[in-house]
């Protein structure tokens, strides 16, 4: 299993255009050609080398140790000397599931970028990827690094990722995958809707890259999920009232299932529903609206 994961991570590293490397157990395990070119070294000589020895002055040892220990992404930006040349580097380390603890390291030479490109790079730091998927040509899951909710969905019998999408969205997802394949390594972005097992509706922002190597072709898909506020509120209203259907909840709220459906796709349900649930069940309005804090 560990070898399979490393093969998949090798695909991720070689598919992305940025200089990337996998650090595990305090040393480089994998690196792409762009990473080696940045350092002016032979890629074959990189495995087994501590990243701090390759990029002294960047403080990578402490950063990667913190990333692995606390399971969080970190980045640094600093001027260093590489092959006798002073340059500005931005480095980001992202935790990767591994028995030994690993991090995916991205390093970018920002000294060659103009001000607008550096601003875009800084903005990209704020983008969080919730899930990483790798699919084969038949859309079977080869590798997945998932948030807890999605991991729970995946562990259910007969799980197929595309079935989580709303009706009609599966075809759109397949078309996006095909566009990624046709783009010859280019990145395709698509926005989709999905529904979790508890009924919540979410917007899914997906970035897809198709990669072909000696093992065959596969799709790398990084997704971010954002809950539609109305959907989450209705799920919590059902929990507060102890009902499982729209018909049952509509009856208790003195409304119709059609109104619930419209509210589920909106930003926020009518305030009178929140007030009624507070009066009937003494539930926290903040919990109903945001899911945060105490229920009562």
List the main descriptive attributes of the protein structure presented here.
10 strands; five-stranded antiparallel β-sheet; single chain; 28% strand; alpha+beta; disordered N terminus; 38% helix; 296 residues
SSE topology sketch:
Blueprint: H1 2-15, E1 20-24, E2 27-31, H2 33-39, H3 51-54, H4 60-70, E3 74-82, E4 85-96, E5 102-109, H5 115-124, E6 131-136, E7 141-145, H6 148-154, H7 169-182, E8 187-195, E9 201-213, E10 216-227, H8 229-241, H9 246-252, H10 257-264, H11 271-281, H12 285-290
Antiparallel strand pairs: 1-2, 1-5, 3-4, 4-5, 6-7, 6-10, 8-9, 9-10
Helix pairs in contact: 9-10
Q: What does this molecule look like?
A:
The chain has 296 residues and is of the alpha+beta class. Helices cover 38% and strands 28% of the residues. It has twelve helices and ten strands. The strands form two sheets. A five-stranded antiparallel sheet has the order 2-1-5-4-3. Strands 7-6-10-9-8 form a five-stranded antiparallel sheet, sandwiched between helices. It is elongated. The protein starts with a helix and ends in a 6-residue tail after the last helix. Residues 1-5 and 123-127 have low confidence and may be disordered.
Oligomeric grouping of the chains = single chain
| Strands ordered across the widest β-sheet | 2-1-5-4-3
How many separate helices? Answer: 12
Shape: elongated
**Helix content, binned percent:** 25-40%
Measured distance between first and last alpha carbons: 44 Å
Class based on secondary structure composition and strand pairing: alpha+beta
| Largest sheet, strands/sense/barrel | 5 strands, antiparallel
* Mean pLDDT across every amino acid position: 76
E-strand count: 10
What fraction of residues sit in β-strands? 25-35%
Q: Element order, helices and strands?
A: HEEHHHEEEHEEHHEEEHHHHH
Name the poorly predicted regions: 1-5, 123-127
Radius of gyration: 23 Å
